[in-house]
Amino acid sequence: MGLLEAKKVTSSYQKEADKCNSGMETCEEVREKAELALAEQKKLTSKWEERARQKGWRDGATKSNIKTNSNAQAAA
Questions:
Q1: CA distance linking residue 4 with residue 28, whole number of Å
Q2: Residue 51 predicted with pLDDT over 70
């Protein structure tokens, strides 16, 4: 009877280990897909920033910032 019970417990632990391994593989696949998506998004962002700079955009420049600077220069 003890051997049969040990086999059941072993089988149960093996099933749980298989579930865990399967979950880890799924998690790893999702992480890899997310990394690829992030890399693609960074490339796209870089292209848009390059186009914006070609049209005169500067880092940190906003409409309110530009107006304030223009007003300050006009007053000086």
A1: 36
A2: yes
CA–CA distances in Å: residue 72 to residues 49, 67, 69: 28, 8, 5
Tell me the two tokens of residue 69: 């600077």
For 43, the token pair is 């490339």
Q: State pLDDT tens for residues 30-41.
A: 999 999 999 999
**Three-state secondary structure readout of the chain:** CHHHHHHHHHHHHHHHHHHHHHHHHHHHHHHHHHHHHHHHHHHHHHHHHHHHHHCCCCCCCCHHHHHHHHHHHHHC
